[in-house]
Design a protein that fits this description.
The protein has six helices and two strands, in the order ααααββαα. With 140 residues, the chain is mainly alpha-helical.
Length: 140
Amino acid sequence: MREPTLASRLRLAVVRLNRKLRAQRANENVSLTQIAALSTLYKCGALTPGRLAAKEGVQPPSMTRVIAALEEMGYVERTPHPTDGRQSIVALTTAGKSFIEATISVREAWLDRKLAELSGDEREVLDRAAEIIDRMAGNE
């Protein structure tokens, strides 16, 4: 068996870290799919259900169910579209924004604890790696 490539090792490390971070939640009753939709609304602002579905890579009927559940929890609200009477706009409520901010806080606290276990040199390497990974992902 050949030795794993850098691409393979990096892919696996990123997947594992993402899995661990996603497991850190402010509320276990909210699914990862629902958290993803809330996070997109937090980052992008109010969207139509179709646009939200497209950003999340799911079919509109699936997103309709997600939105309905989030609306029932009080995390999003729908308002009429200003120019298209057939559509609505989905936006975070104050409770939805607070929930996402709490989830971010829980995840960052977990990561802070893990980073504190590393040496200063290891943290410096990760600081540089974060810049590089962000650039690779096209977020710079």
